[in-house]
Design brief:
Elements (H helix, E strand, L loop, with lengths): L15 E4 L6 H12 L2 E3 L22 H16 L3 E11 L7 E11 L4 E9 L6 E4 L8 H4 L7 E5 L9 E4 L2 H14 L5 E5 L7 H19 L11 E7 L13 E7 L6 E5 L18
Parallel strand pairs: 1-2, 1-3
Antiparallel strand pairs: 3-4, 4-5, 6-9, 7-8, 7-9, 10-11, 11-12
The structure holds zinc ion (2 copies).
The site of one zinc ion has 8 residues, from loops.
Length: 291
């Protein structure tokens, strides 16, 4: 058991952190940041993160998720005048290896303008209700509503086609509103069809909120980790390298072998074997055994 003297305080103990969110993400992020990094979340009073692009496509998102995330964190920092900022971005789509399985990738970036660095962490999950469906009436949804985890998770409805700027209805969590929205959308659609999709905004999506909480803990632990050489915060994995040896012939494969940890302040770096304990690659992934 470490004694209180040997537990080193988080480098951020008691400091304030701007969180740019319009979607209640503080419910998932505040506790991890306080418990694991000693940071207190501050919410900017006026923040239009939708200006950076929205899930429903009215404003096109620009740039890569990490860039959008850092920009968003900086919006919060500018609005609060704090040197520390945090933001999160989620993306949804088919699983990279299993095209019919939906997946959710969350990224969370932390900006420290006092020390001058940015770190980010990511989490990938196949546990998501992400789905969409085209219907001509409420009755066609059937079992799909269970797939979409409705009504514990919200839905979005829009006309399949129609005039640009046609209203999109979001955050639908009742059958009555859903019926009415589908009627309106089919009426306004040139093809008399409505597009119904899951609302992936965190405050309408408890599954996503849970993933964001896990990611917040991961990032908070990273922030509290110090460089073994200089003691700067944010020590952690920044890269990986391939070459995991084949279980049959020991030849290097394309699978990850090493994790690379780097410091946010000095040139110190360490290489360690992959942290999930996997030490050999299946022969099926080997170019020599299974060309
Ligand atoms: Zn260092
Ligand atoms: Zn082999």
């Amino acid at each position: 058991m470490p004694t209180p003297q040997t537990i080193r305080k988080s480098p951020y103990e008691g400091q304030k952190l701007a969180l740019a969110t319009k979607h209640g993400k503080e419910r998932a992020i505040a506790r991890p940041m306080r418990c694991a990094a000693g940071l207190e979340i501050v919410l900017p009073a006026d923040l239009d993160t939708d200006a950076l692009g929205t899930f429903t496509g009215e404003v096109p998102r620009e740039g890569k998720p990490l860039d959008v995330c850092v920009k968003k964190a900086r919006l919060g920092m500018a609005a609060t005048g704090l040197p520390l900022g945090l933001a999160n971005e989620g993306s949804f789509g088919p699983h990279p290896f299993l095209p019919f399985v939906p997946s959710n990738l969350e990224i969370m970036a932390f900006v420290d303008d006092a020390r001058g660095f940015i770190v980010h962490e990511m989490l990938f999950s196949e546990k998501t209700n992400y789905a969409q469906r085209e219907v001509c009436g409420f009755g066609e949804l059937g079992d799909w509503l269970q797939t979409a985890s409705f009504p514990s998770h919200g839905l979005i409805v829009r006309p399949k086609s129609g005039r640009p700027g046609m209203a999109v209805e979001k955050g639908i969590v009742t059958v009555e509103r859903l019926r009415a929205a589908i009627e309106r959308a089919t009426y306004h659609s040139e093809e008399a069809a409505a597009l119904v999709e899951t609302d992936m905004r965190a405050h309408f999506n408890p599954t996503r909120m849970t993933l964001i909480r896990r990611l917040a803990f991961k990032l908070a632990r990273r922030l509290a980790s110090r460089c073994p050489d200089c003691g700067a915060p944010g020590w952690g994995m920044t890269g990986q390298s391939a070459g995991l040896p084949c279980e049959e012939c020991e030849a290097p494969t394309e699978m990850i072998h090493w994790e690379i940890l780097t410091c946010t302040a000095c040139a110190h770096r360490e290489t360690r074997p992959r942290s999930d304990g996997l030490r050999k690659a299946p022969a099926g992934r080997c170019g020599s055994c299974n060309p």
